[in-house]
Design the sequence.
């Protein structure tokens, strides 16, 4: 945690919106962190948050394994806001009653405000659109609480214990469908919790520069420079902090996009004059991945191999105590399994894929940041717009875009298809409006006809999404003419492909990458 900043703690009970709560709080100028619902009360006390938000979740408080926080949570004397399931947890723990047979609400609803102070301060009128997603409902408030809002289907839609500064709402203020949701969260942060704000990319740069310098001392740091947004911003931040103690290493793992290594070396050597060592480890990585089909195994093999090579390079440099990585907060969240309703989505190669024993200490300055926050840091540090705006590329590279076993021929197919897709998206002027666009090689063959001859070739899936942070995403409704052009080019130009399909899945339920 960034010690010099006030903190809002978000406890995750398994909601698909939990990460969104943390993001909304940061957007309002206050640093936030997402932690498991069962974080011990003693740990919470030591973190000294200005306030606590209990997320929603899919469970019922009456389930056998219902996720419930420590009872001591409500005795810490810290302001608390419960959202949806979080409201029900408050009621259940403090003597109220939740009814599992009450009328359910899913989707848009209208809430009538009974008290426009505190949480609903500044919201004009007594009715406001909100987003509901609940089965159980609160039917009896705990002692000391009062109703501050209701809806036709939820007679008790928001509650407050003014003396203890505990609030609960049945709807989701963090989603865009709740018209005044940001104002409600702002009221909790500033009016209830007394936050001063000031969390932004500029304050992060100043804090981290000093922290890195103090931690590293006189030792050298090697930076894993892939050439993407995260590692490039990381390298510039590290150089700002420790100058010539930074040693960048670019490892070509054979899983990069077309021309990736050449562009990385050119940018960082010529523009920034960094000392960048180049290691071509293509054969090592592909040998380790031979015959591997399970994506978790792929990530772990790639993670271990990276570390082994970095440690070899560190011994050549000497006096290296640290390895710097561009790990992001979503990497940490998706790689961590919370006991209860949230599960590990995938082990990111630089989080869950690391070996148990390492000779280098990790420096991960962006471990607490979302992607858009890293981009803002990059802008402040003066990185070029074309680099800052690059689409995310997974650390394991094309290994997770070739479904099933990996080989040079398959990598060449997906690399070429990906290049065609990006070229046409840029020609159409749509690149900057997308969060990510990619091609995936599927492990199936289909019958086709090319030049009056039967073919039995492979299938490429195209995926393009829009998103703010990568934690949730919608499939991009690309123009049919663009998709037709991309399909025609891939089938004509990429040998071994006779069919192209387009992925129209959102996240959730799907992830952005296929593996």
Sequence:
């Amino acid at each position: 945690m960034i010690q010099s900043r006030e903190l809002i703690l978000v406890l995750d009970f398994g909601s698909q919106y939990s990460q969104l709560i943390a993001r909304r709080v940061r957007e309002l100028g206050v640093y936030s962190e997402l932690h498991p619902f069962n974080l011990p009360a003693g740990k919470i006390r030591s973190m000294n948050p200005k306030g606590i938000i209990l997320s929603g979740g899919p469970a019922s408080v009456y389930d056998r394994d219902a996720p419930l926080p420590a009872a001591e949570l409500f005795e810490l004397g810290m302001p608390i806001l419960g959202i949806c399931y979080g409201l029900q947890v408050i009621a259940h723990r403090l003597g109220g009653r939740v009814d599992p047979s009450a009328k359910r609400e899913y989707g848009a609803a209208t809430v009538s405000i009974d008290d426009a102070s505190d949480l609903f301060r500044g919201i004009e009128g007594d009715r406001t659109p909100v987003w509901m997603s609940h089965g159980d409902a609160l039917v009896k408030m705990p002692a000391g609480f009062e109703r501050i809002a209701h809806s036709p289907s939820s007679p008790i839609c928001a509650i407050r214990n003014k003396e203890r500064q505990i609030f609960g709402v049945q709807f989701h203020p963090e989603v865009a469908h709740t018209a005044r949701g940001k104002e409600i969260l702002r009221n909790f942060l500033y009016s209830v919790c007394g936050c001063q704000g000031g969390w932004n990319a500029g304050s992060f740069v100043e804090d981290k520069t000093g922290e890195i310098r103090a931690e590293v001392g006189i030792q050298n740091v090697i930076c894993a420079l892939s050439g993407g947004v995260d590692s490039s911003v990381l390298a510039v931040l590290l150089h700002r902090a420790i100058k010539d103690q930074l040693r960048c290493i670019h490892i070509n793992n054979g899983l990069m996009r077309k021309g990736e290594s050449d562009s990385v070396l050119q940018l960082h050597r010529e523009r920034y004059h960094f000392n960048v060592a180049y290691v071509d480890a293509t054969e090592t990585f592909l040998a380790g991945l031979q015959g591997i089909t399970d994506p978790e195994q792929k990530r772990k093999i790639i993670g271990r191999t990276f570390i082994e090579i970095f440690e070899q390079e560190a011994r050549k440099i000497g006096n290296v105590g640290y390895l710097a990585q561009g790990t992001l907060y979503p990497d940490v969240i998706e790689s961590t399994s919370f006991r209860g309703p949230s599960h590990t989505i995938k082990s990111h190669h630089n989080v869950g894929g690391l070996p148990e024993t390492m000779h280098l200490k990790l420096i991960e300055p962006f471990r607490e940041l979302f992607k858009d926050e890293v981009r803002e840091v990059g802008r402040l540090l003066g990185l070029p717009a074309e680099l800052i705006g690059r689409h995310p590329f997974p650390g394991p590279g094309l290994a997770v875009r070739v479904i099933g076993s990996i080989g040079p021929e398959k990598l060449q197919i997906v690399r070429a298809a990906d290049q065609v897709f990006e070229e046409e998206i840029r020609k159409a002027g749509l690149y900057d409006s997308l969060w990510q666009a990619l091609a995936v090689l599927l492990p199936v063959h289909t019958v086709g006809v090319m030049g009056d001859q039967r073919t039995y070739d492979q299938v490429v899936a195209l995926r393009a999404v829009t998103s703010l942070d990568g934690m949730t995403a919608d499939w991009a409704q690309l123009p049919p003419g663009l998709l037709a052009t991309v399909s025609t080019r891939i089938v004509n130009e990429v040998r071994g492909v006779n069919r192209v399909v387009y992925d129209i899945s959102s996240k959730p339920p799907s992830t952005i990458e296929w593996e």
Summary: The longest helix spans residues 295-317. Residues 93 and 186 are 26 Å apart (CA to CA).
